[in-house]
Write a structure and sequence with these properties.
By secondary structure, the protein is of the alpha/beta class. Helices cover 39% and strands 14% of the residues. The chain has 12 helices and 9 strands. Helix 2 packs across helix 12, helix 3 crosses helix 4 and helix 5 crosses helix 12. The longest helix is centred in the N-terminal third of the chain and has 16 residues. It is globular and about 55 Å long. The model has no long low-confidence stretch (mean pLDDT 96).
Length: 300
């Protein structure tokens, strides 16, 4: 009998999975995308707590929708609605929420916050975004690439711009999936995880199947706006840069996008853009992730 791929206790970064687990998750997500109402009894009666310290559109809505599709009640919480603001510790909050919920989703600033929550929680903790990692976005990215190209092994993805949390998670995902990820960033803005990093965006996109970018100024970096805009000006994804990529290369962006800054409207709104498919795939990949972590199974 072949053993099922391992299921991590928590999902704080892509490297919490192995290659087999990642494939199993994407396979389950594909089934869920095809059967949007096929799992409504899977976790009926359970609660999914979503604690968000950062504003959100896609993450907030996709996790709430994923919970509903699994029969769960999504409970969306802000810091001002909890006792954290009055001195209660993260550890005490994690222990308390574990008594009410089947899993805890966290979108915050410091990665240490989700690590502290996971260390004290007795239910799965999911990192919905920190300053260091954005693993749920990477899952949607891989599913989107697999749908577009019919495979992952051997693809080349160029990430152009700040080596941020999205770039770090993409590098980890690529290492597991057999995708060559090349990051082009200015000196001093490299990703926090090891990988193939260059400074020339044209070197990165040469032969790429996908060209990926993100905003130049993230939440919490507003004071650096003018300096970052000047630094990243040569890293804008425009028609000229896309022309240097592979003939069938697609454009990717985790959104929200700032047209005229990291990408031109011609590219993001053009025929090579698959950003809306990326955004949609946040839902089935997160649905698959929650089911796997809570029910401890990959099977549909």
């Amino acid at each position: 009998m072949i053993a099922a791929p391992p299921i991590p206790r928590h999902f704080l970064r892509i490297s919490d999975l192995d290659a087999e687990s990642l494939t199993a998750l994407l396979d389950l997500a594909e089934v869920m995308r095809a059967r949007p109402h096929g799992f409504v009894d899977a976790l009926r009666g359970d609660t999914l707590v979503c604690f968000f310290e950062k504003p959100s559109t896609r993450t907030r809505v996709s996790f709430a929708a994923a919970a509903e599709r699994l029969g769960m009640m999504p409970l969306l919480l802000r810091p001002d609605e909890l006792q954290l603001g009055r001195g209660e510790t993260i550890e005490d909050t994690a222990r308390t929420l574990s008594g009410y919920a089947a899993a805890i989703v966290v979108r915050t600033f410091a990665h240490e916050t989700v690590e502290q929550l996971a260390g004290a929680a007795t239910v799965p903790v999911i990192n919905a975004l920190t300053d260091a990692h954005h693993p749920c976005q990477a899952l949607a990215d891989l599913l989107t690439l697999r749908e577009r190209f019919g495979r992952l092994e051997g693809l080349r993805v160029a990430f152009v711009g700040a080596g941020n949390n999205v770039a770090s998670s993409l590098l980890e995902a690529g290492a597991l999936a057999g995708v060559e990820v090349v990051v082009a960033s200015p000196p001093g803005y490299e990703p926090r995880v090891p990988g193939h990093v260059v400074t020339d965006p044209y070197e990165a996109v040469a032969g790429a199947d996908a060209v990926y970018t993100d905003v130049w100024v993230s939440m919490g970096e507003e004071d650096e706006r003018e300096r970052r805009l000047a630094t990243f000006e040569p890293y804008r994804v425009d028609a000229r840069l896309m022309a240097a990529a592979g003939e069938d290369a697609v454009f990717m962006h985790c959104l929200p996008a700032h047209r005229g800054e990291e990408v031109t409207a011609e590219v993001i709104d053009g025929p090579r853009s698959i950003v809306w498919q990326q955004a949609e795939n946040r839902l089935p990949t997160e649905e698959a992730l929650v089911l796997a972590l809570v029910a401890r199974r990959w099977e549909a």
